[in-house]
Automatic annotation (TrEMBL):
Record-stated family: Belongs to the pirin family.
Protein name: Pirin family protein
Every Pirin C-terminal domain range: 186-285
Residue ranges constituting the Pirin N-terminal domain according to the UniProt record: 22-130
Gene3D superfamilies, A to Z: Jelly Rolls
Length: 289
């Protein structure tokens, strides 16, 4: 049985800037889709394809804290570098995914990779925030650097395209990421007239973003940059490409715990939020220039 569609949300009218390097449209939480409704997903920012001119000073967002959740950055076009207060650093390129578990807290900064900044070009990415259950909110911060060659690919029949299985399981193929709760994250690239069917538990909170192109989802036409929220029924999501298309399909088991959030901190109670702010103010997350 196909999942029914609860709503289709068009791209927000205006983009916002995160720092000076990330021109994003926010989809979660927005338009009546609150964090509990799409748990474990807390936030989705979509940096739709945008040209950045060359510069000697890489654009980005300066040092900022995170605690109590994970950030997942999916690179489509352009390259992003990062550093954190634990001494970790790296660069993600098109096809790569950075899965950062902030856990007990750290300082982090992200910016355009130096070569991309110097040459300029089209930049396109998605960032998700994924909640951690209470039992894991204070795990030590760590990363999963999921380069394109480490992410399993499932080729679709009749030259329909491919599915990059970032997390979860697609047609028996397990994804590259290790997750704290059940999560599916599929980067789907379809050729025109290609199609794909994904089996997802009825209990999962499920949504998709049309990154590029136009598609038909469970018999309903959906356009570029539309966001589709599914009801918690059925087990099948069928996508047919009207044009070449890129679709990000996400689902997960809801974390049935209170959500207390304030900026870059996501905990279970307001007292824990206050403590996180105090930790940040006294330098408990380290130093990052």
């Amino acid at each position: 049985m196909k999942k029914t569609i609860e709503k289709v949300v068009s791209r927000p009218r205006h983009a916002g800037m995160v720092g000076d390097g990330f021109r994003v449209y926010n989809y979660i939480p927005r338009g009546g889709i609150e964090q509990h409704r799409l748990s474990p997903f807390l936030l989705m920012d979509f940096a739709a394809a945008h040209y950045f001119s060359p510069t000697d000073t890489p654009r980005g967002v300066d040092a900022h804290p995170h605690k109590g959740f994970e950030t997942v950055t999916i690179a489509y076009k352009g390259s992003v570098a990062h550093h954190d207060s634990a001494g970790n650093s790296g660069v993600i390129h098109p096809g790569d995914v950075q899965w950062m578990t902030a856990g007990s807290g750290l300082l982090h900064k992200e910016y355009h990779d130096a070569q991309f900044a110097a040459e300029g070009g089209i930049f396109e990415m998605v960032q998700l925030w994924v909640n951690l259950p209470k039992a894991y909110k204070l795990v030590n911060p760590h990363y999963q650097a999921l380069t394109a060659d480490r992410i399993p690919k499932v080729l679709l029949p009749n030259d329909g395209g491919e599915v990059n299985v970032i997390a979860g399981s697609f047609n028996g193929q397990n994804g590259a990421a290790t997750t704290y709760t059940p999560v599916n994250l599929f980067d789907i690239k379809l050729h025109a007239k290609g199609q794909v069917s994904a089996t997802i538990p009825a209990t999962h909170n499920t949504a998709l973003l049309v990154v590029e192109g136009n598609v038909t989802v469970n018999d309903r036409p959906v356009h570029q940059h539309d966001f589709v929220l599914f009801n918690n029924d059925g087990t099948s999501v069928e996508i047919k490409a009207d044009t070449d298309a890129v679709v990000l399909l996400l689902s997960g088991t809801p974390i049935e715990e209170p959500i207390a959030s304030y900026g870059p901190f996501v905990m279970n109670t307001q007292d824990e939020i206050v403590e996180a702010i105090k930790e940040f103010q006294r330098g408990a997350y380290g130093v990052l220039a």
